[in-house]
Amino acid sequence: MDVKAEVILEVSRVTKNFGGLAALRDVSFGILREHIVALIGPNGAGKTTLFNVISGVYVPNSGSVRLEGEDITGKPAHVLCKMGIARTFQIVRPFLQMTALENVMVGAMFGNKRELSFKEAWEKAQECLEFVNMADKRDVMTSNLTLPDRKKVELAKALASNPKIVLLDEVISGLNPTEIVSAMELIRRIKNDLKITVFWVEHIMEAVIRLADYIIVLHYGEKIADDIPERIVKDQRVIDAYLGEQYVF
Asked: Going from the N-terminus, what domains does the chain have, and what CATH number goes with each?
């Protein structure tokens, strides 16, 4: 981790319990501005729970979350969206009876800190659809789009809120090899072109290793590693808990 870079999101000693089950235990880390950070770990490790805590779906039992130094712990999701935290979900649920453009306009109109006019929201939605290479399908009903295209619409809707950081939940999973390459390039451009920080849950390790500036690893609700890809894939704790083999650099 580049200690000289600015921390945009800080998670400090977060614990989240569901009854007697601790889904997250004393998790702490910082995410640097304009970095791509991958969150990996086996199913049930607590990745989605962590996203839910950060994005305001869940309130942690203890610990804190800070955005640009401001304590945002427990703030509701709609408030956090306006503060600059956008998110996509593993299971894509667009408004099926609306067009791609209308879906993205929802993000522009209701996700921004500043209230946009209809014209401004239309322009922002068009811009975001162009960014994800979906401008030619803007008038297509979302119910008629393929899964890869629905994922692009979901991403465009998140970007339309002008986020400082975007949480991506398995945006590559379920895609074919050609679609994976296209999605990887989009993630890279979010960082490089839009200067937006990316926090990304993913199981496809080849993509994670190629894109991530650094990787956080969860196992049974605990952080077991936080480092650059070259060291993560050689970490015996990560190999034993998740990878099962070493990746060669």
From this structure: 1-84+164-249 (3.40.50.300), 91-162 (no CATH)
